[in-house]
């Protein structure tokens, strides 16, 4: 399977920042919309470029973490009014389990923190289809020094990713941003979800080969053992075929259904979903939603 989640190295400073990619998925499968798709999972290397986000803080979160709904910017994650340019928006604050080791491995902390932040993003943004958009989750927790001093805080946030998957400065709040649909933040990709390791996100009114469609499929819970790739494909194939046909508005042979699946490692960190895409062989310049049997937009 192709790994599609890379996390930044743990910095030896006051807070650890991890960006939770919506593209933390692996495996490219595809088939025509008409009839039943023929799926095939591809073995490959890492599938996504690293998303580092803004510079890592140089001081701790302090006694009072930022409030839910706070907007933050810059290397120190200063809180600013949301109508001012900023990169992140806090979706939840929490405390990591006291049962974690005194000097935990990074992977152990990720498994405790990232599912919480992904779930917080779903509630804050107002949709279970976050992974079909350009919106991403952040997770912050104490550095090794602050952890040793007894700090166990967790701060979750969201940001909007640009074409390079790095956060872009924006204005306005994202609270409830997906409650009425994905249009403003829908993920369109310049490449092929079924063939490419890394998806490059582009505006949907620019040439693109794929569009993530509503209907992100939950395949289980992160604390459950992950299904086999074959079991995930069996679940994703009919679901995505139906989602894409409903999105396009007709069964047609000139577009494909594709989907991306989690690896065992990303599953334990909260990526227990399949994301469905409608894919074309030639680039289109506008969305395919509701196109029906009309010609593909050139």
TrEMBL record:
Signal peptide positions (record): none
Domain Septum formation-related: 75-276
Entry superkingdom: Bacteria
Residue stretches of biased makeup (Polar residues): 34-59
Region ranges (Disordered): 34-67
The protein's name in its UniProt record: Septum formation
Organism phylogeny: Bacteria, Bacillati, Actinomycetota, Actinomycetes, Pseudonocardiales
């Amino acid at each position: 399977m192709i790994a599609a989640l890379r996390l930044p190295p743990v910095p030896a400073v006051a807070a650890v920042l991890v960006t939770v990619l919506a593209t933390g998925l692996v495996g490219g499968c595809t088939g025509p919309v008409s009839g039943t798709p023929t799926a095939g999972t591809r073995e490959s290397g890492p599938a996504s470029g690293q998303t580092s986000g803004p510079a890592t803080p140089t001081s701790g979160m302090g006694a009072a973490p930022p409030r839910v709904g706070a907007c933050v910017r810059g290397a120190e994650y200063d809180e600013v009014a949301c109508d001012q340019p900023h990169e992140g928006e806090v979706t939840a604050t929490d405390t990591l389990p006291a049962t974690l080791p005194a000097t935990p491995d990074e992977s152990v902390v990720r498994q405790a923190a990232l599912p919480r932040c992904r779930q917080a993003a779903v509630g804050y943004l107002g949709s279970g289809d976050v992974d079909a958009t350009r919106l991403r989750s952040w997770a912050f927790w104490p550095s090794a020094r602050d952890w040793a001093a007894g700090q166990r805080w967790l701060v979750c946030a969201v940001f909007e990713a640009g074409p390079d998957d790095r956060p872009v400065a924006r204005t306005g709040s994202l609270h409830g941003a997906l409650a009425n649909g994905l249009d403003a933040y829908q993920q369109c990709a310049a490449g092929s979800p079924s063939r490419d390791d890394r998806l490059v996100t582009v505006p949907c009114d620019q040439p693109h080969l794929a569009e993530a469609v509503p209907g992100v499929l939950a395949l289980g819970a992160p604390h459950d053992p992950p299904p086999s790739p074959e079991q995930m494909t069996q679940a994703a194939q009919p679901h995505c075929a139906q989602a894409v046909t409903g999105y396009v508005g007709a069964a047609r042979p000139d577009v494909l259904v594709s989907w991306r699946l989690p690896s065992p490692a990303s599953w334990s960190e909260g990526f227990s979903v399949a994301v469905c895409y409608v894919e074309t062989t030639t680039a289109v310049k506008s969305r395919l939603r509701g196109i029906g049997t009309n010609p593909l937009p050139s």
